[in-house]
Amino acid sequence: MPTIAVTGASGHLGRRVAELLLEKGERPVLLTRDPAALDDLAARGADVRRGDFSDIAGMTAALAGVDRLLLISIDVIGPQRIALHGQAIEAARAAGVKHIAYTSLPRPDAENPAGVAPDHRATEQALRDSGLDWTFLRNNIYADFQIPTAVQAAASGQLVTNSADGASAFVTRDDCAAAAAAVLASDGHVGQTYDITGPEAIDAAALAALTADISGTPVEVVHVDDAAYTAGLVAAAGLPEEAAALYASFGASAREGWASEVTTAVFDLTGVEPTPLRAVLTAGLTGSGS
Ligand SMILES: NC(=O)c1ccc[n+]([C@@H]2O[C@H](COP(=O)([O-])OP(=O)(O)OC[C@H]3O[C@@H](n4cnc5c(N)ncnc54)[C@H](OP(=O)(O)O)[C@@H]3O)[C@@H](O)[C@H]2O)c1
Fold first, then answer.
1. What is the pTM of this model?
2. For a Cys staple, 94 with which of 60, 189, 264, 289, CB 3.0–4.6 Å?
3. What is the DSSP letter of 143?
4. Residues 8, 135: one domain?
């Protein structure tokens, strides 16, 4: 049986993947910058090791004996992320890891305006060039992230968007974790690219309608351009300009149709249908499960 490892195992996605691997009877190696945060998973049989992409020698040592690695993209955006992902790949190769599954983005093409596309495109290329076996898990936008949008829309009666009628196939983080755990714990995924999506593509009008239906309050869609959307996030939500522009880039990406493709990957990999956005928003808006 191959030895499986997960980077960034104390993050939301990494922890969930680790839990699912333990439930499958695996004894995963869990890499994190904060091993104490995973004491509970160590007590359940995981092999918790310190791993930071900025420390190549430390990462190489931490990956000793690992065959198959889930490389979770880190939460820093831009050239630094590309460099750190490259270092993680270098460490994996030095340690003798055979196969890396990487959490990417659907269609990370040069023309995709999503602000994170260049990082994912570059990391995918680094993996193709590495000589290692690879699998790309191209996770769509997290459905979980639509909860604050829906809460705000229900409270104000307005859903402000720059995505026009562009739709996104929002997928829950738990479904992304289940797909990743399935890929790690089974064979046959080398050289495969999976677009991990929810069960439907949702545009701003559908998100507003869902929010209104669940909350019982009318929600009007307000369409703005990228500059106005960014300015609104800075002024109303107090976001730094750079973060606001990043959010606006996701709206632009949706508007241009880059995020709308729905696939059967979650079901194909896990045997379970992906969670609909309605269930996520119902839990987020009312505290009840469905
Ligand atoms: N699809 C989407 O909508 C979406 C949205 C947001 C983010 N993402 C991407 O998906 C990733 C996982 O999502 P998440 O919700 O789990 O994010 P999260 O909870 O913010 O986790 C961030 C992750 O980055 C890791 N990390 C940061 N710096 C690192 C370093 N120097 N070396 C090694 N690991 C480092 C953390 O690992 P430790 O703290 O355990 O070391 C942690 O796993 C994010 O990091 C981001 O790249 C996707």
1. 0.97
2. 60
3. G
4. yes
